[in-house]
Design a protein that fits this description.
Elements (H helix, E strand, L loop, with lengths): L3 E7 L5 H18 L3 E6 L7 H10 L4 E6 L6 H16 L4 E3 L8 H17 L9 E6 L5 H14 L5 E6 L7 H9 L6 E5 L6 H18 L4 E3 L7 H19 L11 H20 L9 H11 L10 E3 L3 H10 L3 E4 L2 H6 L2 H7 L2 E3 L5 H10 L3 H8 L1 H4 L3 E4 L3 H13 L6 E4 L7 H9 L5 E4 L6 H20 L1
Parallel strand pairs: 1-2, 1-3, 3-4, 5-6, 5-7, 7-8, 10-11, 10-12, 12-13, 13-14
Antiparallel strand pairs: 9-14
């Protein structure tokens, strides 16, 4: 009889409550589905990372490993988890299946509604649901798929309440201040706020609370209450088991992980190869050279947007690739404007090349200094990284203000990066910041127009790292 293991992959956190919740969820899932082994690991932040998590399953004697990407949204973190897990599974010739994430399951809106009901009972709110206004608070992502999944949940509970609004902690809009303002503008009798977060991590313990308190004070509204996060819940455990069974059935009918059939990991890599062939064919003749085109192609692959080779074409300073290679050779730091960009940079490439990433957008000191000086966190995060930026590589995929700040630092002589990948996204200042970068005396890669984003920036960096590794092997 095959020994089965379940591995839950979470984003990662230093907060002890997160580990406690994951340990409890693993124990419940193990009992409920009869796994021989169940454990968790982290995509980033701190170990155990995915490789260590898979090794723990193998060491426990597992014949079959089911990997559960424990994410609420189909964004870059999910993609990175799938790619890493699939690569390790292929390299080690494991019988490994990867489930779908939590998003779009009908149980999720029901769980949100139950958390709100718990809050009403706790606070003694006698109003019916139809008399209550709700604000659903998400983390936020520059990936439009993640945005759509979150809004889908908000839309699903909308018929139940008087008004349902949504907002994001970071990386997307409306932000919390805007979300609270929009909700208060509807003159609610009570505002019930639901943090759509899996764990009691730093965001729940500090960031969301601080931003909500400031927004409510600014809006002069007091009758607002916060529900608890999703946390440990039997229905989440049932959903994990359900998602796992969907892929584990392939083992039972012999269509997965056998000599007669190609594994999912093999198909994954074939898909990437075929995707590149499609991109080459659809773009056709172009003016990019042999070092530039792999960067453009990988950006198109990450975004499925051919505009990066069309009207929103990518622009390269003539020194960009050579300067980046020199910095990589010197084991530079890659500074990013948001955690999402850093998370999507290939961890194996970073380790092989002796590189590290730095992102200070969530640093408490940066946030405090930004409030004190009336600047954005993105601007202050760049200033905080001045030493790493000097001689390093900068990758900006979200905030035009971060790009403008780096440009100012270059002009002031505060830092001289080896390369600036400037691909912020948005309607306000994104185009202008890129135009200013192209006029600045610094090696750069950017594009024309409003499009960009964390997937574009991280994929450009990944392409450069792969190019460097290829040149080094040649």
């Amino acid at each position: 009889m095959l020994k089965r293991a379940l591995l839950i992959v979470d984003r990662g956190s230093r907060e002890p409550e997160v580990r406690q919740e994951l340990e409890e969820i693993c124990a419940l899932a193990k009992r409920r589905a009869g796994y021989d082994h169940a454990s968790f690991c982290f995509l980033e932040v701190l170990p155990p990372f995915i490789g260590e998590g898979i090794k723990s399953c193998v060491d426990a004697g597992a014949d079959v490993i089911t990997v559960m990407p424990y994410f609420l949204y189909p964004g870059m973190k999910l993609k990175d988890t799938v790619k890493q897990s699939a690569r390790i599974g292929k390299d080690r010739q494991l019988r490994l299946a990867i489930t779908r994430p939590l998003s779009y399951h009908p149980m999720m809106p029901s769980l949100v509604a139950d958390r709100i009901s718990e809050l009403k009972k706790e606070k003694g709110i006698a109003l019916s649901d139809g008399e209550c206004d709700v604000l659903l608070i998400g983390h936020g992502s520059s990936d439009p798929n993640a945005h759509d999944a979150f809004v889908h949940t908000a839309d699903a509970i909308r018929p139940r309440y008087r008004n349902v609004h949504h907002c994001f902690l970071e990386l997307d809009s409306p932000n919390i201040e805007q979300g609270v303002a929009q909700a208060v503008a509807k003159n609610p009798r009570v505002l019930l706020m639901m943090p759509y977060f899996l764990h009691k991590g730093a965001h729940i313990k500090r960031d969301v609370v601080n931003d909500v308190d400031a927004a409510l004070e600014k809006a002069h509204f007091k009758n607002a209450h916060m529900a608890r996060h999703l946390g440990v819940d039997d229905r989440l455990v049932n959903l994990i088991v359900e998602r796992a069974k969907e892929v584990e059935n392939r083992f039972l009918d012999g269509t997965f992980g056998t000599a007669a059939k190609r594994s999912m990991t093999e198909r994954t890599f074939d898909i990437e190869k075929r995707s590149f062939e499609i991109i080459d064919a659809e773009v056709g003749p172009h003016n990019y050279d042999a070092m530039q085109w792999p960067v453009v192609r990988r950006v198109i692959h990450a975004t499925a947007d051919f505009d990066f080779a069309g009207k929103g074409r990518m622009l390269f300073d003539r020194r960009a690739i050579d300067s980046a290679f020199s910095a990589i050779k010197n084991c530079c730091t890659i500074v990013t404007d948001v955690d999402m960009v850093a998370a999507a940079i290939n961890k194996k490439s970073l380790a092989d090349l002796g590189l590290k990433t730095a992102c200070y957008i969530s640093d408490a000191k940066v946030a405090e200094e930004a409030r004190r000086l009336g600047k954005t966190r993105s601007e202050m995060a760049m200033r905080h990284a001045a030493k790493e930026i000097d001689g390093g590589i900068v990758a900006i995929g979200n905030a035009p203000t971060a790009l403008f700040e780096v440009i100012s630092m270059v002009k002031e002589g505060a830092a001289r990066p080896a390369l600036v990948v400037g691909l912020p996204v948005g309607f306000v200042s994104a185009s202008e910041s890129k135009e200013e970068l192209a006029r600045t005396d610094v090696p750069f890669i950017t594009n024309v127009g409003r499009k960009g984003g964390s997937p574009a920036a991280s994929s450009a960096i990944n392409a450069i790292l792969l190019l460097y590794q290829s040149q080094r092997r040649a």
